[in-house]
Amino acid sequence: MPRSDSPLRAVETALRYQCPDGRRRTHTARGEDWQIGAGSPLPSRRLILPGGVTVTQRVVPRPNDAGSPDELFDLLENEVRIGVRLARRYPTSYPAELDRLVGYDTDGELPFVLFAQPRGEPLSTIGGELLPEAQQRFTCSILRGVLALQTAGVVHGRIDPRTVRFDGSTVQIWDYSGAALHGESRGPGGEPPYASPEQLAGRGSAHSGADLWSAGALIYLATTGRRPPPTGPVLDNHSAALRALLDGVFAAAPESRPEVAELLRRIPADATPPHAEPLCDAAFDRGTAVFASLAERKRASLATAAPLPAPAPAPPAPRRWWGGKRASDAKRRR
């Protein structure tokens, strides 16, 4: 997990949370004031835990703050549900391409999640065509990330330039607030031109072909520097390598698109899925049921909570840590 090289304001916070493996921890952390934006609909801040480990905390604001607490709690609950599943599927070899859940508290006064500090910069801030030597690394890594999600039975549903970061070597897919399990029903979500047509319309059930479409759209952006049209790019005027790589990716039906492993073989690159442990733990199933019950109680309590305290005044000319878009550009539904 990355460590911070720059000091944060001395805002001390007592944290009590549960880890994905069930352990409970209590820390006093230092961090920033709340910020809204950075590609997530949930207010967030950076925290430093004891030992210098940096994490990102995202919370559900109380009534009279931005957004609907009930709706935002659903997003946070989904972050926990998907984050725990990924942690349980990859307990010893967590894929570098996926954001990792550190802990959560959904029953406290201010429900929150903790994720490992993001790596790299969002593709939206990098902008345009990547240098040729970076294009291959980006392409391989984004496909490895989609393969890791597929192997775990997860459909992200919102892979786009704001939820994909790149450090020049490896991507990181983050923000699971709009994710679903393969085969689950879903509503409309994502944003054109990066979301597939069926994802935008909410047709059918969650399918990994939607994430493949999104990954293909980002590969096209990183290779050409152009946003693809919502119906998928016309590849006839591009290089033979790009045409061969993305052949079939933008088919109308998700079942007609190639497998992620097939695209990795076209590069060519290692198409072996990451090792994932099976989910056959009765205790985990019971814990999921308890979590659902606690989440329902928390939804009911949010309506009577007090507003989130106003943040402390910021120092002159602050340097925002995320480097992303403004909050007005970041509001969106899953």
Please describe what this structure looks like:
The chain is 31% helix and 17% strand. It has 334 residues and is of the alpha+beta class. It folds into two domains: 124 residues, 2-Layer Sandwich (Phosphorylase Kinase, domain 1), CATH 3.30.200; 146 residues, Transferase(Phosphotransferase) domain 1 (Transferase(Phosphotransferase), domain 1). Strands 1, 2, 3, 4, 5, 6 and 7 form a seven-stranded antiparallel sheet that branches. A hairpin with a 5-residue loop joins strand 4 and strand 5. Helix 1 packs antiparallel against helix 8, helix 3 runs antiparallel to helix 5 and helix 3 packs antiparallel against helix 7. The chain is globular, with a radius of gyration of 20 Å.
